[in-house]
Amino acid sequence: MSSVIPEGHVILGRIGAAHGLRGEVRIEIRTDDSARLAAGTTVLTDDPLVGELTVSQLRQASGKATIAFEQVNDRDDAEAMRGLLILAPAQDEDDAWYPSDLAGLAARGQDGRALGEVLEVRAMPAHDVLVLREPSGARTLVPFVRSIVPVVDVAGGFVVLAPPGGLLADEPLEEESLEGDDQPDDGEQAPA
């Protein structure tokens, strides 16, 4: 199921499995500002039937986070929320964009060569991905992480990609050259 994020909203997290019997759920936090999920905060979900929720508690321990909402009091209701996105109005942030802002941007390599066009941003369980149409027409899912997409310039109309070898269909894997220091010079014999 593809989520539709309302204009002007950003993803704060994705709800995971129920935790305990009182309605708590695991949450994959997708914001650097976890204060946006503090107790008493009202957030929106991507399911119109669920709508708004009020955070009653956010706990983090051992790298995992659990969250509780005032409207959810038992495990069954908590389990029914699995997979929902938690949304909030966007704030003015230097490195934040709406998914719709990225559609249509040109994709360039770090050396400036054209790598294609961003068609859309998809929310995936591990992290968002850019759907890239390469010059050959191939569509490739590019992990939207800083190490692979180090530059996003919405005003300039482009993103810069640093894809690992083999990620892009139009970029063949580099083969190691068999020529060079390992080859004997003319008249020399290779050691046996």
UniProtKB/TrEMBL annotation:
UniProt name for this protein: Ribosome maturation factor RimM
GO terms, biological process: ribosomal small subunit biogenesis; rRNA processing
A Pfam match: PRC_RimM
Record field: compositional bias (Acidic residues): 171-192
Chief place of localization: cytoplasm
Encoding gene per record: rimM
GO CC list: cytoplasm; ribosome
Family: Belongs to the RimM family.
Entry-linked InterPro entries: PRC_barrel-like_sf (IPR011033), PRC_RimM (IPR056792), RimM (IPR011961), RimM_N (IPR002676), RimM_N_sf (IPR036976), Transl_B-barrel_sf (IPR009000)
Molecular function GO terms recorded: ribosome binding
Domain of life according to the entry: Bacteria
Subunit text: Binds ribosomal protein uS19.
Places the protein is found: Cytoplasm
Signal peptide: none
Function: An accessory protein needed during the final step in the assembly of 30S ribosomal subunit, possibly for assembly of the head region. Essential for efficient processing of 16S rRNA. May be needed both before and after RbfA during the maturation of 16S rRNA. It has affinity for free ribosomal 30S subunits but not for 70S ribosomes.
Comment, domains: The PRC barrel domain binds ribosomal protein uS19.
Location of the RimM N-terminal domain: 12-91
Keywords associated with the record: Chaperone, Cytoplasm, Ribosome biogenesis, rRNA processing
Region described as Disordered: 169-192
Annotated ranges, domain Ribosome maturation factor RimM PRC barrel: 100-167
